[in-house]
Amino acid sequence: xxxxxxxxxxxxxxxxxxxTFLLQTVVGIWGNFSLLYHYLFLYHTQYRLRVTDLICKHLxxxxxxxxxxxxxxxxxxxxxxxxxxxxxxxxxxxxFEKVGRSMSIGTTCLLSVFQTIIISPKNSCWKNLKVxxxxxIALSISxxxxxxxxxxxxxxxxxxxxxxxxxxxxxxNIRDSGxxxxxxxxxxxxxxxxxxxxxxxxxxxxxxxxxxxxxxxxLYRHSQRVQYIHKARVSSRPPAESRATQSILLLxxxxxxxxxxxxxxxxxxxxxxxxxxxxxxxxxLINVCFPFISPFLLxxxxxxxxxxxxxxxxxxxxxxxxxxx
Length: 325
What we know:
The protein has helices at residues 2-44, 51-78, 87-118, 129-161, 163-167, 185-188, 190-225, 227-232, 240-271, 277-302, 304-311, 319-324; strands at residues 174-176, 181-183. By secondary structure, it is an all-alpha fold. Strands 1-2 form a two-stranded antiparallel ribbon. Helix 1 (2-44) runs parallel beside helix 10, helix 2 (51-78) runs parallel beside helix 4 (129-161) and helix 9 runs antiparallel to helix 10 (277-302). One of its GO terms (molecular function) is pheromone receptor activity. InterPro entries: GPCR_Rhodpsn_7TM, Vmron_rcpt_1.
């Protein structure tokens, strides 16, 4: 009887995880595709996207990659709909997950640093970059995509290269992600992995932290300088530039919180050869949290929800009106 109660409790807990994964995946996919549709609509109506919109569009694509490669397989597994046994499917899923994760870090870093430069005072050391920075954003995003795809392609190719030698040794470095078992390539080539993946991620995290602090300091100084003007105004609504900065600051802060939690849980997961199911599922949930939440933070910035509602109405709205939202 105690064993059956324990099994029922475990099954109920796994079902709860499965439902949570399902809701997180469905809502996250809907939010990111809605946001991507908004940016594509603006592009096809021949309106030039703002630089921040361009960065956010690629952040949205990265979020979609993470949700499709992490949330969907995890949902299918926890609800026991299918078991992923193919080694090729495993490598492909993990590849897209890592590319999406790296691009999410890179684009969030780029967005934070760019906004920091834009709102910097005219007498700051960034004054010359204010004009030049927008010209290099598209090139920087392209470089990020190429770098992420090539770097994470090295490890599957490395695994194929040493496959015969690897299978002849004791395979103790196998991590179960919940839906497939994959070789821990980081342990095979630790120095290469650190140089190509860990160092860029840590560097981007430091830049995001610095940019967030700089934005907070700039906003504080600006509010102090114009405090007497705000008191004279009837409306207490902050300027558009301040609202945009605050939303990007919120996005960067949210990213840093979930990224830190994700790193802690992933490191903990890597320390165990046979981790418990709740640790595997909790780590999976945290890994998808930022891609799930970020589109709604961006929607609140640009009132995208209202724009999308108007787009689905019979009477189409003027692109001028949509662009101002």
